Structure prediction request, 376 residues.
Amino acid sequence: MKIIILFDSFSLGGAEFHAFKLAKYFSKIKKYETTILVFKEGDGAIKKLCDKEGINTRVIGEFTRIRRFMFPLQIRKYRKIFNEFKPDVILSFNLLPNLLNGFIWKHTTAKFGIWSQQNISPIILRGQIEKNAIKNISCFISNSFHGAEFLVSNLFVEKEKVFVVQNGIEEASIKFSVGEWRNKLGLTGDEFVGIMPANLTGTKDHITLLKAWKIVSEKLIAENTKAILLLPGRLGETTDHIMVQIRDSDMFSNVKILGMITDMPGLYRVADISILSSNAEGLPNAVLESMEAGLPVIGTRIAGIMECVGEEGYQYLHDPYDFEKLAENILRFSYDDTLSEKVGTFNHERVKKHFAYERMCEETLAVISKCYGHSK
Prediction:
């Protein structure tokens, strides 16, 4: 089988990493001829991972929207590119790649095109061509149950064409030890350390967390414990706003903005708690990775995070923008090591049971096989 996986850029994000993991499984385990196509380079993080695994990649040029008067030329351009690889299936991630997949796969050697839904961001369709692109998609894979509902209710996709395959997490491979990470970060080991693994972008709510962390740091310093918040992730459009909040709160000594980190499994082991303050999520890998690391996880009471932590974890979530409740939840774990260990152990076992990497890949292949059978 020949598979094309299409997404926006080689920048590291949840959807892109999900796509890479599937590509690795298809090419290395199943020995399928797998190629990753992207519109632009981005920061190149995914490209480095692909090169390491020997996965074929290509940048095909920027794609902004389907253009009504340029439509025939767009068809011709992308048909030529895609047919070079003679794909049997095209699997796409994120809105623009999904729309391109919808209008191009029938003009290629592919038997079907699959739309992967990784978030629930509002989608504004521009014209009938984009609506037709959605209708042309053979089937849809959502990484969450609420994402599947979003496809049906917002994009009017037929229920029969929607499948749910939840994210899967690989067993962690650690590069640096806890001691090495503490040295890098200037930590003594006596601090209470929180981590929010998330790109500094508009879909994340770092500001609510920073307001909460101010309360936490003031409470704990009164007990001779310094609270340190780690913020790993790509520096995006909200970076300046976050820096202003840190400055105005006088928290430069309590918050460390780290940028992109390649050894996230090692960094998680330094933390006492993981937090995801967010406005919208599909099924966030950051939460699942934190759970795999054995950390207690708290965050915003939204569907994607709730789906990760399960009903047992609902009590540790806060309503959007409620920084006081978030601070209360953080402090609850800072004061109770037994609770932290109990919840962290439960989280680790939950990931092993429900969010295994091999299960995600095999379920994705099952959907591909079902679509393939219907295409004959």
Notes: The domain at 2-168+356-375 is CATH 3.40.50.2000 (Rossmann fold).
